Automatic annotation (TrEMBL):
It comes from Liparis tanakae. InterPro entries: DcpS/DCS2, HIT-like_sf, Scavenger_mRNA_decap_enz_N. The keyword Coiled coil does not apply. It is found in: Cytoplasm; Nucleus. This is m7GpppX diphosphatase.
Length: 329
């Protein structure tokens, strides 16, 4: 059936991502650049670019739309941070080409060994039209959503139109990313899985990014939370912080722990990022600190059902169209 097919497709896509990741690790480990692992073939050699969706010289990222075989795909390339533990080898093992010298100032092109030139690569394939729009540079508008607007505009829209959460179910069902799990509480009500977000390459703690995915499958977002969920939220907060301290020696005071509203994926999850790291979506218009969420529900059990919530929507987001049609913008 369709659900089963979609599941196979998603697992297939995950394998694709794993292949890309393995290729990256192999490049790093093998100095001769010869591929020994037959699974590390470069699937992107077949990629045909159709458009650059967005790019940033500052972030050193580029989001590309194109085709992999006959399937639509989005490829995200991101240059990775320079790590302190690689500096000695970077200085001794590179070639240095002088560009200019003026008094005490000089600039060079440092030609580093291949293993330092990795580019973190994310592939979404097959990508839907919604994925293409998500990664396209667009202007945003701030939307004001009352509890009523949620019921009459947002909820019907997300029930029809949101991204598949198959990847989340694959994680919870241990069909994908099992080896990446950092912590697990199997309790069906207050339990969750903590694992690295796929935006984090886990090479340095400076841009640490993990997500906690709740075991309960029917909590869509912040809007569904009531005081009934306090034990769940407190459990994630407490055990998530402990697990990160244990695994990465990063104290709770160095973490930004928050939920997105609106999220992209409507299965409740909590973002754990390093405080100093400006993760995409950590601005005040989208991120809600878990500590505040807990306090708000303690003082008003129906806080998130009744309050007006504010969030940005991109120009091409169908939900924005719904708010406009309803005369709410
Ligand atoms: N471990 O398969 C997955 C997976 N997927 C499909 C999404 N996530 C996953 N994690 C694992 N395995 O933090 C992560 C996402 C995100 C979280 C969902 O789950 O990385 P959300 O529902 O609040 O959605 O959180 P959000 O924040 O809109 O999604 P996302 O993808 O982070 O997009 C926000 C912006 O971040 C994008 O518009 C883009 O500007 C930027 N971005 C997205 N992906 C990348 C990337 N790979 N590299 C650089 N920037 C990126």
């Amino acid at each position: 059936d369709t659900a089963a097919k979609r599941e196979t497709d998603t697992v297939g896509t995950d394998e694709l991502t794993q292949k890309v990741k393995r290729a990256r690790v192999d490049d790093e480990n093998g100095d001769d650049g010869v591929e020994k692992d037959p699974e590390s073939e470069n699937i992107l050699s077949e990629f045909k670019t159709s458009a650059v969706l967005s790019d940033s010289a500052r972030e050193k990222t580029i989001f590309i739309h194109g085709k992999l075989g006959d399937q639509e795909a989005v490829v995200i390339l991101e240059k990775t941070p320079i790590r302190e533990d690689t500096l000695a080898e970077l200085f001794t093992g590179s070639k240095l080409k002088l560009e200019m010298k003026n008094d005490i100032y000089s600039t060079y092109q440092l030609l580093a060994p291949a293993k330092f030139n990795e580019i973190k690569t994310t592939v979404v394939c097959p990508a839907t039209e919604k994925h293409v729009k998500k990664y396209q540079r667009q202007e945003s508008s701030l939307v004001e959503e009352t509890g009523e607007d949620y019921k009459s505009i947002t909820l019907p829209y997300i029930q029809k139109q949101s991204f598949s959460v198959q990847w989340v179910h694959n994680i919870l069902d241990k069909k994908a990313e099992t080896e990446r799990i950092v912590f697990e509480d199997p309790d069906p009500d207050v339990g969750f899985l903590l694992l690295p977000d796929f935006k984090w390459d886990q090479k340095q703690v400076d841009d640490l990014y993990l997500i906690a995915i709740v075991n309960q499958r029917d909590i869509k977002s912040l809007r569904d939370l009531t005081s009934e969920h306090l034990p769940l939220l407190q459990n994630i907060f407490q055990k998530g912080k402990e697990a990160i301290l244990q695994r990465y020696s990063l104290a709770a005071s160095k973490l930004r722990v928050y939920l997105h509203y609106q999220p992209s994926y409507y299965h409740l999850h909590v973002h754990f990022t390093k405080l100093g790291y400006q993760a995409p979506g950590c601005g005040v218009e989208r991120a809600h600190l878990l500590a505040d969420v807990i306090q708000n529900l303690q003082s008003d059990p129906e806080y998130y059902k009744t309050r007006t919530l504010y969030f940005p929507l991109r120009a091409e987001d169908g939900l924005l169209g719904q708010f406009k049609e309803a005369g709410r913008l």
